[in-house]
Structure formats: structure tokens, C-alpha cells
């Protein structure tokens, strides 16, 4: 996953699917838009809530779920 300087997800997929990952980083830092498979609306629409890269997930709730998992299931693993 690649995220632009505004915190928006602009690419989802395997990094090997990008022609020049180093150039992608340079372009994102320069404020340019990435193109190609896994970018644009395709990447943003897959984000939870479909809000163009804005997640509605609550970090505190997610951390509490991880702690609960560690206390219960994690011990048996």
C-alpha cells in the first residue's frame, strides 16, 4: 500500500506490480498522482468506508481487540 502526503491511500497491491517503486516514492513526495493498476479510485474504493482513503476505524477499538486476542487466543498459540 502506498499513501500520499495527505494520508490518502493511492495504491493497493504487491510492490512488484509497480514498474518503478523508487520513482513512485519520488512522485508522491513531489505531490504527483500515481497511475496504473491498483491506483486512483480503485485503491480508494477498497478502503473501509469507501471515503477515498479516509478510514472510519477507531484505533482505540482496534488496540483493545488486539489486547483481547492476546489474552485469550494468543496464549494457546
Helix-strand topology string: EEHHHH
* Overall morphology: elongated
What's the Cα radius of gyration?
16 Å
Main β sheet profile: 2 strands, antiparallel
Compute the average pLDDT: 79
**DSSP helical segment count:** 4
Identify the strand order in the major beta sheet: 1-2
Briefly summarize what is shown.
The chain is elongated. It contains four helices and two strands. 40% of the residues lie in helices and 6% in strands.
Keywords:
two-stranded antiparallel sheet, 40% helix, 4 helices, single chain, 77 residues, mainly alpha
Account of the protein in words:
The chain has helices at 21-29, 41-45, 59-71, 73-76; strands spanning 2-3, 9-11. With 77 residues, the chain is mostly helical. It has one domain (2-76). It has a two-stranded antiparallel ribbon with strand order 1-2. It is elongated, with a radius of gyration of 16 Å. It starts with a strand and ends with a helix.
How are the elements arranged and paired?
Blueprint: E1 2-3, E2 9-11, H1 21-29, H2 41-45, H3 59-71, H4 73-76
Antiparallel strand pairs: 1-2
Amino acid at each position: 500500500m502506498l499513501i500520499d502526503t495527505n494520508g490518502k491511500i493511492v495504491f493497493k497491491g504487491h510492490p512488484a506490480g509497480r514498474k518503478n517503486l523508487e520513482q513512485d516514492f519520488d512522485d508522491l513526495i513531489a505531490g504527483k498522482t500515481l497511475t496504473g493498476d491498483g491506483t486512483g479510485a480503485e485503491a480508494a474504493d477498497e478502503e473501509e468506508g469507501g471515503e477515498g482513503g479516509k478510514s472510519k476505524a477507531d484505533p482505540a477499538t482496534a488496540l483493545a481487540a488486539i489486547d483481547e486476542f492476546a489474552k485469550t487466543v494468543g496464549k494457546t498459540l
